[in-house]
Fold this sequence. Notes:
Elements: E1 3-14, E2 24-32, E3 36-40, H1 47-54, E4 62-71, E5 75-76, H2 82-88, E6 93-96, H3 110-121, H4 126-139, H5 145-148, H6 158-170, E7 176-180, H7 188-205, E8 208-213, H8 216-222, E9 225-230, E10 233-239, H9 240-245, H10 250-261, H11 298-301, E11 306-308, E12 314-316, H12 318-323
Parallel strand pairs: 3-8, 3-9, 6-7, 7-8
Antiparallel strand pairs: 1-2, 1-4, 4-5, 9-10, 10-12, 11-12
Residues 14, 23, 41, 43-49, 59, 61-62, 214 line the site of adenosine-5'-triphosphate (ATP).
Amino acid sequence: MGILLAIENLSIAVGKKSTGEPLVKNVSLQLEEGKTYGIVGESGSGKSLTSLSILNLLADKLTITEGQIQFADKGNLLSLKKNQLQKIRGKEISMIFQEPMTALDPMYTIHYQLFEVLKFHKKLSKQQMYEQVINMLNAVGISRPEKVLKNYPHELSGGMRQRIMIAMALLCNPKLLIADEPTTALDVTIQAQILELMKKLKQQYQSTILLITHDLGVIAESCDDVAVMYAGQIVEIGSVEEIFDQPKHPYTQGLLKAVNSIGNEAQELYAIPGNVPTQDEFNEGCRFASRCPLVIESCHNNVPHLTRITQSHTVRCWAVEQEGVSYET
Ligand SMILES: Nc1ncnc2c1ncn2[C@@H]1O[C@H](COP(=O)(O)OP(=O)(O)OP(=O)(O)O)[C@@H](O)[C@H]1O
């Protein structure tokens, strides 16, 4: 399988001519076709900005100051014109969000909104569109699709709205589905159902998924590969097994230690000491330096290189690079 999406050295800053430290700095990652790729990190780590930049959906006051985003045979998405990108959006790359009402318009019926997607991207007869919509609603587990089509979004439950948004995103069978915290707003049982549904649909439609979440449980459950982000920088990339069984970056190790301490009565709850730095506290080197148990001089001034541990496992950490060893907690 080839690489479907490659983000290369992406930096995002506030303002048109920002000279300060960027919010997202030198992010690079590669999504293999057919796989689910997770980006995990605490709130504010830059996960959403990274994913929004793929479809040029960043807020006006934010600027991509560096980097490229190569997608399939389309070249660099960042250099495409607005109308070229519009043809890709919804057809080849779709997005689902934490809050379905971000994608659904309260003023229109589900029927209208699903048909609009097909009308924009495909040349189909009314009958063909109807069949496609009904099939997709069935595929996402909506039991009486003909009835639901007549509803407005507010007439449906949160879980139903999430299913409709997924149906809308998959209607044109996109090569890439970007899911930004798709289950965060849902209660635990619905969360599990939606994750299960996404797994099933991924196999059925052979989509590649970029899954953004702060929840390591969701990553373990759904992903093949993972990038760990901290304060706008990627600190570690690996397969799910590598990240969970052999984490190398002190931040990844801290995150896992914190999660593993939950529900373990014999152990005190663990939290990584200190706080995530705000933008005006970013240093030029590794942004985890102020909280890192392994910090050395270089960490404050220079961004660490990517050290390759295996073909799929890389880590950005001066201590790991210099020592060439792993640090287990
Ligand atoms: N429009 C904006 N203007 C200025 N700063 C912004 C803007 N949008 C996001 N940021 C800042 O960029 C940083 C990264 O935000 P981002 O939304 O990507 O984080 P995240 O990892 O997705 O977190 P969350 O899970 O809370 O959404 C945060 O510090 C945030 O405050």
